[in-house]
Each structure stands twice: as structure tokens, then as C-alpha cells.
Amino acid sequence: MDTQTWNTSEEDAGERLDKWLAAIAPDLSRSRAQQLINDGQLTINGEICTDSSAKIKPEMEVTLTIPEAEPTHILAQPMDLNIVYEDEDLLVINKPAGLTVHPGAGNPNGTLVNGLLAHCGDSLSGIGGVARPGIVHRIDKETSGLLVVAKHDVAHRFLSEQLESRKLSRRYFAVCWGIPSPTSGTISAPVGRSPNNRQKMAVVERGGKDATTHYRVHEAFQNLASLVECKLETGRTHQIRVHFQHINHPLLGDPLYVKRRNTSLLPAPLKEFLDSFQRQALHAAQLRFIHPRDKKPMRFEAPLPDDMQELLNILRNL
């Protein structure tokens, strides 16, 4: 438990309590400050205050008690994690295909978060008052590649703001059917829940969120398929998969967005490979952001995993 006391001045007068508290205590996000105030953890001149919108007055004595982070209900499970980078504020993980990021209904264990809890242990100071890793952005279970995870509220807030302002840069490599035309361009189409299948996302006319994907064909394999580099401007659920399906160039192996194809017409090596390749050919290859503590630019790259390398080798040799 940590207790801190501040005295307000004329310069502070008129400021909202939660906003002032987040500014004077840099280890707190504004939402966390609101939570602590609402929970009765703040006193003004010795009296408990639960109004986060209260206005600051001069010569107030403000005392805040920050309890120890509550243990999470999520089970810590040791697992092999490909940790590309780690410090006291964050981790960068190269996630393999097949690993779910966060526990959910019917899938409470065996996720990346379960593994991170076991790995990080006491180094997690809490996200929203709970001792858990802060997932800044997710990638699909069957997508491989890089993602950044915060260890505490301040890092989570700083990285999330970069994601919101589009300063956190993510680049992907995908293998799609056919050759997009033009070979470089931008797909801007709103993405929302499919009206026909609630398990799927889709480009929708109403109720969707703006979504923008920039792409460039890196390599074409006859007219059969292409290796495409994608840069996300937004990060909607299944965005790249939905956008490429929308322009009639869905990703190879995508179990959700590729209509059943007549594989008998494919070259034998490719047909044989795709019969066992049960995931979308999508890899989060590059991640760039500003570090929350020293504000230095960080850049990480992850090479294509073996299964996508094998797919490309087959396509090159057809």
C-alpha cells in the first residue's frame, strides 16, 4: 500500500480533481485516478472525497492511498514465450500461430496472458488495480508475429494513446490469392460485425468503424498468388482478412473468409501443402513505437515463420 499527500496552490485552482491527480502523480492514468477516488481512497483535508469531478481549491491537503494490486482471477501457466524484448515497463512478444492472446468464454487457459502472468510474476504493478499484463493490441489466434504488452498502467496508457493516434506502427506480410490491382494502394472500407454470420466481420454500409489498410505487392507468383506487405492505419478486428476478401483477394488458408475452392486444379505441391495449412497466411512482421519511459523510438522485426516460408518456397518453385 502506498500513501501520498500533496498541498494545492493558487495555480491549481479550478482544475478537476481526477485530471489534477493524474498530472501530479505520473504513475496514475486518469481512469485509475477516477477509480481510486470512487473507491474512497482519497481524502481532502482529512475528509473522504468520492467526487472525481470536484474542483481543486487553494491550500487543500490531498491524500491518496493506492492499495496493492489485486490478484487476477486468471491462472498463471508457465509456457515457452518468444520474448523479443523486455524491460521494467513492457515486453515485445513474437506470438506463434495457434496461441490465443487473451482468455475468453470457453477458453480460460493456455493463452498468452496465462503465460505472461507466470513469466512476469511480481514485476506486474497492475493494470486498473489488477495484477495483470496490459494487452495494448491483439492479433488473431492463427496470426503469428509481434505485439507489445505493458506491465503497468502508465505504460499501458502511453502505448494505447500511440495506438489511438496511429503513432504505433504495425506492418504485416500476407499471402493472398491472385494479384491485387493496382499492385499498391489503399483499402478504405468500414468494418463491422457481419449481418449474416455473427462470428465474422465484414465491410458494412451501416454500423461499421472506419478501417484503412495500405498495401504493396512484394512478389507475385504467376497469376496464382501474391506476397503482400500491409500497413494498418486502423486496427479493426480481422481488418486485413476482411479487406482482402472485400477486394476478392482473400488470404491463403483463411478458414473463415475464404470460400471453399476447387483445389483439384491447383499444382500438386501447393494442394498438398494447403490441405495441412489450417490458418490464414498472415504475419505481424514489424512493430514501431515510442518507449513510455525514455521516449526513445523502438523498432522490432520478426522474420516469417517456417510455415509461411515453406508456402513461399512452394509458390516460387511452381
Total domain units: 3
Q: Point out poorly predicted stretches.
A: none
Do you know the CATH architecture of the largest domain? 2-Layer Sandwich
CATH topology of the largest domain: Pseudouridine synthase
Report the principal-axis shape.
elongated
| H and E string | EHHEEEEEEHEEEHEEEEEEHHEEH
Record field, number of beta strands: 18
Helix content: 10-25%
Helix segment count? 7
SSE diagram, text form:
Elements: E1 2-7, H1 17-24, H2 30-38, E2 42-44, E3 47-48, E4 61-66, E5 70-71, E6 83-86, E7 90-95, H3 112-120, E8 130-131, E9 134-135, E10 144-150, H4 153-164, E11 169-177, E12 184-188, E13 191-193, E14 201-203, E15 212-221, E16 225-232, H5 239-246, H6 268-276, E17 282-290, E18 297-301, H7 306-316
Parallel strand pairs: 5-8, 10-17
Antiparallel strand pairs: 1-4, 2-3, 2-4, 6-7, 7-10, 9-10, 11-16, 11-17, 12-15, 13-14, 15-16, 17-18
Describe the protein in words:
By secondary structure, the chain is of the alpha+beta class. The protein folds into 3 domains: 2-67, RNA-binding S4 domain (Structural Genomics Hypothetical 15.5 Kd Protein In mrcA-pckA Intergenic Region, Chain A); 71-165, 2-Layer Sandwich (Pseudouridine synthase), CATH 3.30.2350.10; 170-286 and 299-316, Pseudouridine synthase (2-Layer Sandwich), CATH 3.30.2350. The chain has 7 helices and 18 strands. It has helices at 17-24, 30-38, 112-120, 153-164, 239-246, 268-276, 306-316, and strands at residues 2-7, 42-44, 47-48, 61-66, 70-71, 83-86, 90-95, 130-131, 134-135, 144-150, 169-177, 184-188, 191-193, 201-203, 212-221, 225-232, 282-290, 297-301. Strands 6, 7, 9, 10, 11, 12, 15, 16, 17 and 18 form a 10-stranded mixed beta sheet that branches. Strands 1-4-2-3 form a 4-stranded antiparallel beta sheet, with no helix packed on it. A two-stranded parallel sheet has the order 5-8. 33% of the residues are buried. The model has no long low-confidence stretch (mean pLDDT 89).
